[in-house]
């Protein structure tokens, strides 16, 4: 399947931008512990709606045993809400390529009373460039893989991989391998429509294997009408790993 047209590069796709952002948040949090950083898509209530979708799945996910991976975890807010609002208590891992993000998320987790060795772990990892084996977890380990704005940022990165592609083109192949067979990948985006997200993520990976994702459902967001047309500003799509 041919992916959509690329977005123009932006500083929001650069690692340096996010390291500066989370370093500033970390400094502010040190001075004022009530400051925990920006919650992305908060005006769209994205985290709560994503959790509601997870709770609506049939058969229901096991709250004690379902494992979660949060890609580009930022301040860790998504996983905190998965536990507090969703009631899930299984193993959770938040990863980010920004060391300051991981330090911030870890501090906030401890402030909230979570054990960062058992309840929710946060680890520095660049999913685009670094192998999993060096980080202590295995491919195919997670029941639910979450992406709330991370693919949006990666889509704005102008770097190319070893095949000469924009790095966002290799993201699906890495994501698929992190989910268990039958596991879910939920992506939240303000840069791509539902159909465009399907074009990016549906189908088999590019390594000749049978691994792949299929569309399972959508997270429902408020719609607006303008000039006789209907639209929405945020899209959430749920895929299932098929093999």
Walkthrough of the structure:
The chain is an alpha/beta fold and about 240 residues long. About 30% of the residues lie in helices and about 25% in strands. The mean pLDDT is about 90.
Number of helices: 7
Q: How would a textbook summarize the main sheet?
A: 8 strands, mixed
Q: Care to count the β-strands?
A: 10
Taking the alpha carbons of the first and last residues, their distance comes to 18 Å
Instruction: Report the structural category.
Output: alpha/beta
Which descriptor suits the 3D outline? globular
User: Topology as H/E string?
Assistant: HHEHEHEEHHEHEEEEE
Helix content: 25-40%
Rg from C-alpha positions? 17 Å
Low-confidence runs: none
Strand order of the largest sheet: 3-2-1-4-5-10-7-6
Keywords for this structure?
single chain, 243 residues, alpha/beta, eight-stranded mixed sheet, two-stranded antiparallel sheet
